[in-house]
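Structure ticket #2291
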Amino acid sequence: MTREPLKLDLYPMGDLSLLSGGDRTVAMTRLPLRPMESGRLRFVMQFWDERRGARVAPRRADFDPWDLTPVLPLILLVDVLRNPLDFRCRLAGTKVCDIHGVEVTGRHVRDLLPKRYSEKVWQEYADLVERREPQLCAVEYTNRFDLRRRFTVLRLPLSNDGQSVDMIMVVHDVD
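Resolution: structure written out below.
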């Protein structure tokens, strides 16, 4: 039996590069999870919720990348490191790298630029690990061409033991 992935239209994202230095305007606003306007993010949220079952969060192994083909370029997987708490980008889709203007795979979150952005993301990830709940955030920033860019991210906890968060799946959606 051949499995067909869900087809979602991915529109061109254009230049979304964050400036790799300097102090730029950055705003991050937490949004309610429901109602979720983005069909793309709703799809991933429902997929995550179905695989979670009665657990706090599903395991990464519960996801078949084939099922997420339409959104793979928009996904960032982040390892949760302990003692001390830190976050490292494990795997980044191509559109995620376009957003940041650099390859982020292997980088620690606090190494991303601009610094105000990376510190806010680090704090949001720490909150997700503590609360073990998904987050939906609107992000706005000024890029290196002084153009305002906006996108929404859905952050989903993943857990190998069903209790403690050891990875975060971040799905980007661009307005």
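Closing remark: The two ends are 36 Å apart (CA to CA).
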